[in-house]
Specification:
2 copies of one chain form a homodimer. By secondary structure, chain A is mainly alpha-helical. Chain A contains 16 helices and 2 strands. Chain A has a single domain, classed as Farnesyl Diphosphate Synthase. In chain A, 72% of the residues lie in helices and 1% in strands. In chain A, strand 1 and strand 2 form a beta hairpin. In chain A, helix 2 crosses helix 6 and helix 15 packs antiparallel against helix 16. The termini of chain A are close together. Chains A and B meet through helix 4, helix 6 and helix 7 of A and helix 4, helix 6 and helix 7 of B.
Chain lengths: 340, 340
């Protein structure tokens, strides 16, 4: 999938994908045939009938961060750690689509919509367990610490998703809670990807800490950019139609910023979103204008920029080899400039 | 919950439960409040409103096996390994109830029926991740190998559950496939519980192997006993009404043994179960009689005995301290004499 015009996938991502995909495929091939088929579909390697898919798979941004993270600490790769982050990402998307009732993922039907909920629950479970298995059979010296980091990350991820589900039933979500949700749901796995390689190769603890802090900020900047796309497009890049987060009444960051702005536009937005039943297109366009009028868009854009700047400072403090530094910054900019 | 008259919970199980429960509670308390509440309900510690439940929790058979497994290899406990097996067991029950649509578990409403599917999916995910986290922060010398064993076990568990789901759509399940399903779904975690303690304390590999083989046989004997209860009772012990596996047309071991027996009774049973719609009570009683007539009951009883004998031989070959040997045999007999 291509990004916005002028935004191309960084070469380090393409290179990492080529390194990690064989490890991922070998891991998935250990699963029983039924579960392996659901996983292969979800990962974009196969169509619903099990035939190889021509385009094939996501961009492997998290594995690229993990590969660079190992190189930041040592002249070594730790591909199992990189593959494990992608497996956890895939697990969380599989289960999130079921929980959120999202029937579409990356321009295709979601796995649960094709294979049914039971098979999709099971495939998610399998990918989560496989991530631990893979990491623990690696011969990287810090593999047990890396596996523990990944497990703690999954706990944070789940806490974020639990908050997100809770938000659906509430109309008093604060911006602080919303940031906490995004930190768990998006920030934690990107922070983990940015540090797990350094942990796996037994790199210095302060280095892993700086990389994790970098990733947490990048993750939030990414979520803010994604939330902006969830209102104002672009469907070609994200697979989400314009206005989709307003259509689903999602408590995304710009929307909550607008709702809690104390402005008249914010109050009118709340009244619009409180109407029962599906919201007509004209109302959605009006709601988007109100998010902007209430300052939600400007806040999210500024906040994304602050987060990216903070990420850059953490990275500078890490004192990395220049090539690794440049590649990590490249991915951070890519993530926050296109949305997915 | 009491067992059959005359079958009491072995003292080693009660003792292990007292050792492991605080570790489990501390682990669950790390989860976000919403997920922790679902987990506490599912584990029997709280009611649907979050109030402490008077009876509280399962019997902790798997943790007891894990505690004994560590003692078989060393004069050491490895309570995190024991707690991790219980967390994986709880995870699998949580998700299985959703997949199977079972609204009742241990005489109470299943967690998904109380809190909704999304919260129950998430709580299962959390318990699975927590098992790895707990194991990896243990200071037992073999903790990384133990965590890997647990991850591989989850893969086997999932393969068994995937087969079970597939069986629902098939009418040509062989007895061999059915045994393979039971080995995955039930045998693998009991085999893991019986060996994970020895692995975690870095015990000799052949000892862990013998303990695992013991557990695999015990697991199958347990499943056979459970399947007999699924047809002929007893509801007080299992929470399942008499004839429940016939009512749900489950492809359990005695039923598949009868269906594939090549007898006239087996063919009549197949015809009965193929009828559309819910089966009336009289038909269910007739079906149970046909399972017996086709030799399904006798086969399952004999097979359970063979498995228990084989388990005993594996245990004898392990050369354990006599007290540990006796306690393990006690649990094996308990598991196969009451059903749960």
């Amino acid at each position: 999938m291509s990004g916005r015009p002028g935004v191309i996938v960084p070469p380090s991502v393409t290179a990492a994908r080529e390194l990690v995909e064989p490890v991922l495929r070998a891991a998935v091939s250990r699963l029983d045939p039924v579960t392996a088929r659901v996983a292969a579909y979800h990962l974009g390697w196969a169509d619903a009938d099990g035939r190889p898919a021509p385009s094939g798979g996501g961009k492997a941004l998290r594995p690229a961060l993990a590969v660079l993270s190992a190189r930041a600490a040592a002249a070594a790769d730790c591909l199992h750690a990189a593959a494990a982050t992608e497996l956890v990402h895939a697990f969380s998307l599989l289960h999130d689509d079921i929980m959120d009732g999202d029937a579409t993922r990356r321009h295709r039907r979601a796995a649960w919509a094709v294979f049914g909920e039971p098979a999709a629950i099971l495939a998610g479970d399998a990918l989560l367990a496989l991530a631990g298995e893979l990491l623990l059979e690696d011969d990287c010296p810090g593999h047990a610490r890396a596996a523990r980091l990944l497990a703690v990350t999954v706990r944070d991820l789940i806490a974020g998703q639990a908050l997100d589900l809770e938000f659906e039933r509430r109309d008093d979500v604060t911006l602080d809670e919303c940031l906490r949700m995004a930190a768990g749901k998006t920030g934690s796995l990107i922070a983990c990807a940015c540090s797990i390689g350094a942990v796996a190769v037994d790199g210095p603890v302060p280095l892993a800490g700086a990389l994790s802090a970098f990733g947490a900020e990048v993750g939030l900047a990414f979520q803010l950019a994604d939330d902006l796309l969830g209102i104002w497009g672009a469907p070609a890049a994200t697979g989400k139609p314009v206005l989709s987060d307003l259509r689903s009444r999602k408590k995304s960051l710009p929307i909550v910023a607008a709702l809690t702005s104390g402005t008249r536009a914010g109050d009118r937005l709340a009244a619009l979103l409180a109407a029962p039943g599906p919201l007509p297109e004209a109302t959605l366009r009006q709601a988007a204008a109100l998010v902007e009028e209430a300052g939600g868009r400007a806040w999210a854009e500024a906040e994304a920029k602050h987060r990216l700047d903070a990420a850059g400072r953490h990275l500078a403090a890490a004192g990395l080899p220049p090539a690794v530094h440049a590649d990590l910054l490249d991915i951070a900019r890519f993530l926050t400039s296109r949305g997915h």
